[in-house]
Carbohydrate ABC transporter permease
Amino acid sequence: MKTSVGDKIFDSVNGLLLALLAIVTFFPLYYVFAVSFTDPTEYLQKKFVLFPHTWSFASYEYMLSSKAFLRSLGNSGFLATVGTACSLVVTAALAYSLSRKRLRGRKTFMLLILLTILFSPGIIPNYLVVRELGMINSIWSLIIPALASGWNVILMKSFFDSIPVELEESAQIDGCNDIGIWFRIILPLSLPSLAAFGLFYAVGYWNQYFSALLYLNDASKWPIQVLLQNMLLSANNSDLAVSTTSSVAPPSETLQMAAVIIATLPILLVYPFLQKHFAKGAMVGSVKG
């Protein structure tokens, strides 16, 4: 197929605009990365560094020697692992139950789930519920209220609807009960969708910020995002919510950039392992029949 001059001009302009957009998007990430590895002495002299003359791990050593920082990383890790596992179990179990036509009150449950998508109770009712459940200042206050997303339940239900009923009937003939069918047949067939939704849940739990501000009063239970926010708002090293055995602390800017890189790295490392499942899982519920 012959390409006209207009098409060539359009493709060139389009490619140029996309390249500029990529540069604009990538530049802040590169700047954070460069400053975090800049030698503290060099940064104090230049203040704006794009290509460090001397690379240094001083900021990372300072942050990783901080008990408060490591504790917040552990809190976020707990949220991302335990919270994601609990959310996947609840979402998959609820979606599978709703996909079975023999479930009594199925339409009523679907209506209630749709209502949670259309109407949000708001901050104060959520806070009152968490307080009445006795979860204020508990790490579980960030997990239990966010166990399942109504939208994810509906999408996963659509996936379960596409699984042939004959598979379950064959398993029942072989003497398998409903729980055994769910564990041995349904979940293994659902790995792409579980990987996709697991990634969404993990990113959500790792980025927990506002709920932590509302429900957690003890700084030792803060996730990494809350501690990072306090660091970014600090004007000097003495205001940073970190403690270290080092006598000389790097500039607060390099510490902040190092903290941003450390807080971003775990989620970036998860993507390659889920990539093979993510493309299939992202299409869950989009095609039926």
